DNA sequence: GATGAATGAGTGTTCATTCAT
DNA sequence: GATGAATGAACACTCATTCAT
C-alpha cells in the first residue's frame, strides 16, 4: 500500500488559510504565493492540491455556503413556540450582528466574482434558494396554528431576504448603528404585519 | 496666455477607458497596461496623468457618483402632482431596470473596494446621503398637502434605500424576473403604506 | 523465490507512454508530470523506475533504435534474387513512406538531443553503423555474382544513407510529394549507376 | 516629441543574445529568464519588446534565414567563368565546413520546431525555395554556353539540396571527417555527372 | 506635453526530484 | 512494490511605476 491520502485534510487547511488571507488582504491580495507564505509552504504545495486557482476559489465558496447553512438553523431550532420562533428568526436576520455575521470582505468578494463566474453564481444562488426554503417552511409553521393566514408565503420569504440584504449593504455604506437598528426594527414590523402577527 | 492644459480632457478620456475595461474585464482585469492597450497608448501615458492607480480609481468613483446623481433627479422633476411624483419615484427605484441602471460589475467593484479604502467608502457614503436627502425632501413634499402625515420621513427614506439595495442584490442572485418584480411591487406597497397613501 | 520483479514491465510501460506523449506534444511537452498524467499515475511512479529523466530518455532512444533495426531487415530477407533484392532495398530506403516510417517528431527530438548528449549520440551512431554494415553486406552480396564489381562498397553505403537522410529532411521542408518522389527515383538511379547495375 | 524608439535596436540585441544562449544551452535552456540574465536585464525587458516567446522565436528564425541568404551568394558571385563557378558552388555546398557553416544546435532546434509550428516551417521552407531558385539559376547559367544540356535543372537542384542535407546530418551522426569528405567528393562527382560536365 | 524605455517584484503554474509511508 | 505528499526552483508573462528623452 502507498501512503495514505492527506488530500482532504490539506485541501481544508489550504482553504482555511485562503479564507484568512482573503479577510486580511482582500481578493486582490489573496494570491497563491501569499497564501503559501501565510501557510509556510511553497506555492507548488497549493497547486499540488488544487489544479488551479479557480478550482480553489470555487471550493472555498462551496465550503463557505455549506458552513453558513450549518451555523444558521441551530440558532432557533430549540424554540418550540411558533410565535416566539418567528420573532427570534426576524430578530436574527434583521440584526446588525447578523449583517456582520459573515465577513463582508469575503462575502462580497465571492458575490463580486459571481458576476463573472457561473459556477460561483450557481453556488451562491443555491445557498439563497436553500435559505428561501427554510424561511418559507418557518413561515408556514407559524401560520398553521392560526397565528396568521391568507399570506403569500413565498413572497414574504423573498421580502425578508431582500430586506436582510438591503440592511447588510446599507450598514456597510452608512456605518451608522442607530439608523441601521431603526431600519432593522422597521423591517421586522413590516414582516410581522405581512404575517398578520401582532407587533408587540 | 500659454497653451491650455489638456490634463482634464486626457484624464476624462482615461477614466472613460478605465470604465469600459472595468465593464468588460472586471476589476481584476482593469490593469493600467490593459487600459493603456484599450486606449492605444503606453502605460506611461496613464501614470503621467494619474500619479498612481489609487488616484485614478478614486477619481473614477467620484465621477461615477456624480454622474449617477445627474441622471437621477431629471427623471421625475417634470411631474408636478405630488402623488403621481412619489409613485413615479417608487416605480423607478423598485424596478428591475433600475436595479440594472448601474453596471453591476462597476458598482460592486467600487463597493467592494470601499470595504478597504476609506476614500472610496466616503465617496459612496456621500452619494447615498445625498440620495437620502433627495428622498426625504420628496417624501416631505408629498406629505405637506395632507396626503400623509405623522410619518418618520428619515426612517422611510432609509427603508426605501434598504429595499432598493436588497432588490438589486437579490436580482443578481436569483436572476428570476418574476420574483424580483413581485418583490418590487410589494416593496412599493409597503412604502406607500408607510406613507399612509392609498395603494392603487 | 520471492516475487518476480515487475520493473522491466513497468519500465517498458513508461517508455511506451513517453513515446506517445513525445509524438503528441513534442519534446518540450514530454514532461514527467505529463507522462504520468497520460499513464494515470503520479510522477513519483516514473522516478521510482527511472532514477532521472535522462536515464529514461536514453532508454527510450535505446529501445527505439533496437526496434527500428528489428523492423528493417525482415522487409527484404525473403527475397532471394540479389538483383531484385537490391532493388527492393533501394525502393524502400528512398521512398516517401520510408521517410515517414519513423515518427519525425520523435526521431528529430532524439537527433537534436544527440547534439548535446554523448550517450544519445552514441546510441544513434551505433544504430547507423549497424545499418551501414547491413547495407555494405547487401551490396557485397549483389556484387559477388558479377552483377557489379570494382565498386567502393563502403562509399556507396554511406552515399545511400546520405541520400536517404537528405530525402527525409527535404521531404519535411518541402511537403511536395511529387518533387520528393522524383528525387527518390533519381537517388535510386544514381546508386544503381554506382553499382553498375542496369537501371530498369 | 516623445522618446525615440529603440525597439529595432533592442529587438536585434535580444535576438543576438537569444542566439548565443541557444548555441550554449540548447532550446530547452533558452528560457526568457536565462536570456535576460545573459543580457544583464530583467525578464520584463524582453517581454516588453516581444509580446511572447513564440514571436521572439519566429523573428529569430526569420533573421537567421535572411542572414544565411546574405552570406551565401557573395561567396561565388565574383567568379565569372561558369565552369569554375559551378565547381566552387559544389565545393562549398558539399564541404564539411559548409555542413558546419550553420550552427547545428540552432539549425536543428529551428528545424525541430518547424515540425509543430507552421510559421517556422513556412520560413524555413521559403529559405529553401529561395536557395533552390539560386541553384537552378546557377545550373542554367553553366549550361547555356554548351557545357551541359538536356538536363532537368530543377531535379538536379533538388538533388543537390538532398545530398547537402544528407551530408550535414550524416556528418553529425558519424563524426568521421574522412568518410564525410569522401561522401562529399562523391556527391560532387554525381552532380557534375548529372550536368554532363567533366569531373576533373 | 507626451512617448516609450526600463525596472523589479509580482502573477499562476509546471518542473524534476526526493522523501515518507 | 507502490503511492502520493512535499520541495524548491524555474517557467512565461504581467504588474504598477519610474525615468529619460
Structural features, described:
4 copies of one chain form a homotetramer. With 200 residues, chain A is mainly α. The first copy, chain A, has 2 domains: 1-51, Arc Repressor Mutant, subunit A; 64-194, Orthogonal Bundle (Tetracycline Repressor, domain 2). Helix content of chain A is 76%, strand content 0%. The first copy, chain A, has 10 helices and no strands. The first copy, chain A, has helices at residues 7-29, 32-39, 43-49, 53-72, 82-93, 96-99, 104-114, 118-143, 153-174, 177-194. The longest helix of chain A has 26 residues, at 118-143. Chain A is elongated. The first copy, chain A, starts with 6 loop residues before the first helix and ends in a 6-residue tail after the last helix. The relative contact order of chain A is 0.10. The A-B interface holds A 26-28, 104-105, 108-109, 111-112, 114-116, 121, 124-125, 128, 154-155, 158-159, 161-167, 169-170, 172-175, 179, 182-183, 186-187, 190 and B 26-28, 104-105, 108-109, 111-112, 114-116, 121, 124-125, 128, 154-155, 158-159, 161-167, 169-170, 172-175, 179, 182-183, 186-187, 190. Chain A binds a DNA duplex (21 and 21 nucleotides) through α3.
Amino acid at each position: 500500500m502507498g501512503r495514505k491520502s492527506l488530500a482532504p485534510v490539506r485541501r481544508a487547511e489550504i482553504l482555511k488559510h485562503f479564507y484568512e488571507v482573503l479577510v486580511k488582504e482582500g481578493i486582490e491580495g489573496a494570491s497563491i504565493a501569499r497564501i503559501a507564505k501565510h501557510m509556510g509552504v511553497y506555492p507548488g504545495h497549493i497547486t499540488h492540491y488544487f489544479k488551479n486557482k479557480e478550482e480553489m476559489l470555487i471550493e472555498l465558496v462551496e465550503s463557505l455556503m455549506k458552513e453558513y447553512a450549518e451555523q444558521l438553523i441551530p440558532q432557533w431550532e430549540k424554540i418550540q413556540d411558533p410565535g416566539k420562533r418567528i420573532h427570534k428568526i426576524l430578530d436574527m436576520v434583521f440584526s446588525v450582528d447578523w449583517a456582520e455575521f459573515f465577513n463582508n470582505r469575503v462575502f462580497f468578494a465571492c458575490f463580486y466574482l459571481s458576476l463573472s463566474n457561473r459556477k460561483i453564481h450557481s453556488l451562491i444562488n443555491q445557498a439563497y434558494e436553500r435559505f428561501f426554503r427554510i424561511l418559507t417552511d418557518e413561515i408556514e409553521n407559524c401560520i398553521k396554528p392560526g397565528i396568521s393566514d391568507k399570506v403569500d408565503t413565498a413572497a414574504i420569504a423573498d421580502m425578508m431576504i431582500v430586506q436582510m440584504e438591503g440592511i447588510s449593504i446599507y450598514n456597510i455604506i452608512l456605518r451608522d448603528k442607530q439608523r441601521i437598528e431603526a431600519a432593522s426594527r422597521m423591517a421586522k414590523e413590516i414582516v410581522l404585519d405581512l404575517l398578520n402577527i401582532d407587533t408587540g
